[in-house]
Amino acid sequence: MQLKTSSLEFERFGSVYDKPVSLEKTGMICRDWHMIAKRSINQLYHFDCEVRLEMQSGMAALVVGESLDVNKLEAFAIHRYVKLKPGLYFNLVAVTSNITCKLITISDYNYSLDALTPAYMFRRILPRIRISEILGYYYNIRNSGYVFNGESHNYFELTYVDRGQLLTDVEGTCYTIKEKELMIYGPGQFHTQNIAKGDSCSYVTIIFDMETVVYDVESSHYELLLNKVFTYDKKIYTLIKAFVSESTSEIPYMNSLMLCLLQETVIRLLQSEFIGRKSEKPVTTARQHYEDELLERILAYIDETIYEPITIAEICQKFSMSRSSLQILFKENMDMPPKKYINELKLEKSRQMICENRYTISEIALMLGFNSIHYFSRAFTQKYNMAPSEYAKTIYKT
User: Fold this and answer.
1) How many angstroms separate the CA atoms of 249 and 269, rounded?
2) What's the rounded Cα separation, in Å, for the pair 319 and 330?
3) pTM value?
4) How confident is residue 216, by pLDDT bands cut at 50, 70 and 90?
């Protein structure tokens, strides 16, 4: 998550205040600072006195550090007016297309503008790919011996096999797409499709227009999606199923949601190249429905009894299942063991209770069944990178 200038982490650099400085009363001087959006900073300001920054329009991030070491610079979203301590190195990054900020200091100031090597790169949250339009989507049911002699076009084409298996040739290379697997053909790629004798196949075809939005040399290109079969993945399966369901819903904004589902599918596929893929066994629709319903009831029970000491044995007894079955259910659907899920939920509840400011930290730890205040504080710090008391200060301060 991004840090703000009102956070505890910012206090070693300065503080925030609510009312603008009166130049007449303080005798301070001011200059207007105009800036357009850019990704890099190659110079830093260094004042020997206190500096105040008052945003007038737009949104900006403050990049600040105690030295010219680019690896030790920190970025903070500007929240309210900012007072910087003397001797810091800093600059602003325009997050919106342009900003205006007042830089206020004493009349007897002294500053330098120092070169930063290498330049500091600010990571703006921008899309790397954009699906502009879905040109067609079809559910195909093909019988034994079906042959499609092939085509190429200027668009992307996703083929997801729902049942059976599909043989395809892409630019002279043969692939087999099995049940719950998919493949993407790129613009200009000649591809054929056919069904082997004795088999049948049902598959989804989605044709779409996509562009890669390249902002820097690190951007990933769509070549990562091509010339490979993506094996079964539960998240992809869920997205495709939701896409098919939404395509027949006739509910307002269904088209927008279909675009979002397809874009998330493509992003998940790109991410899989960096985080690795899990080898998961496809499950039947009936089994998945049973697991979803059972998991929903278990999660509801945990949420209802979160203020009581919950044990794994108690859950297993209530829902008539073995400990190993419960572990598998959570691992496949929640990507974590049940004990960890319970602890994570307790910590999230504790955070909510701190925000409500009705109980002390010790009372919250006791109410949620933590063995001691020290254990609770350690677990909270590990999850949120600050102690409960520190978190409370940030809430009450803002």
Assistant:
1) 26
2) 14
3) 0.62
4) very low
Domains 8-121 and 129-275 share a fold: yes
Q: Which of 55-69, 256-270, 343-357 has the lowest mean pLDDT?
A: 343-357
Nearest to 151, CA basis, from 189, 179, 119, 183: 189
Q: Name the CATH superfamily for 286-397.
A: Homeodomain-like (1.10.10.60)
CATH number 3.30.43.10 given to 129-275: no
As beta bridge partners, residue 176 has 167
The CA-atom distances, in angstroms, between 349 and each of 2, 6, 345, 354 are 22, 24, 6, 9
Residues 6+ apart with CB under 8 A from 164: 179, 195, 199, 200, 201, 202, 203
Closest CA to 269 of 230, 237, 307, 299: 230
Specify the residue for token string 């910590």.
Answer: 347
> φ and ψ at 66, to 5 degrees?
-95, 0
Q: How far apart are CA 369 and CA 309, in angstroms?
A: 6
Domain layout of the chain by residue ranges? 8-121, 129-275, 286-397
CATH number of the domain at 8-121, please?
2.60.120.480
Q: How far apart are CA 161 and CA 376, in angstroms?
A: 48
Residue 64 has a CB neighbour count (10 Å cut-off) of: 24
The token pair at 313 is 């044995």
| Nearest-angstrom CA–CA distance, 30 and 61 | 20
Residue with tokens 């200091």: 105
DSSP letter string, 281-304: ----HHHHHHHHHHHHHHHHHHHH
